[in-house]
Amino acid sequence: MRQNSAREAKALRGNVLVPVKFNALWQAKRQSEWLTGASALYGDSMNILVIHGPNLNLLGKREPDIYGSFTLDDVNERLSALASELGVTVSFFQSNHEGELVEKIQSAMGRYQAIVINPGAYTHTSVALRDAISGSGIPTVETHISNIYKREDFRKHSYISAVAVGQITGFGQDSYLLALRAASGLAAGGAKKR
Ligand code: CA2
Fold it and tell me: Quick check: is 124 catalytic?
């Protein structure tokens, strides 16, 4: 009987000790993440995908009066610098092809917590891009270098805006930086909900 209770006590200690140790480690991990602001508690860091639509590869090479003299590489470099400040990881994709843009958005599911997109001229024509964004469920920020509401009438309608969380338009290359700040907030919001 005594032997049994000793064994039982040992077994009980064993059962209790493991969760207590685990719990202590878990608490320490949570505390350090809270202090450092790291997101390891939720797995990987926040991944944000920046998509540039058709003709944006020509930035800085043509029409500087409308779109400025900066290149797409300049924009991406500034975005990378801001991403480091914000503690997020940013990836870039540019295509002149609607189907490739759709496929990129589809493949972003489960990999990216937010999207920044300048859909270029597809803003005003593409139901396919709109459906891809909507179907992905990824919070998306639409952005434009020029103010699309100050230009030709055909640019005043966006197929994307109704499925985007919001739109930033008319701030030159700063539009992208503002969009990344917004996307970073959206990605962090999504992580808190997990
Ligand atoms: O203002 C924007 O960011 C736009 O999305 C740019 C698109 C235009 O179709 C949208 O209405 C507004 C055009 C991107 C083309 O960019 C070029 C850059 C240099 C030279 C030629 C085109």
Answer: no
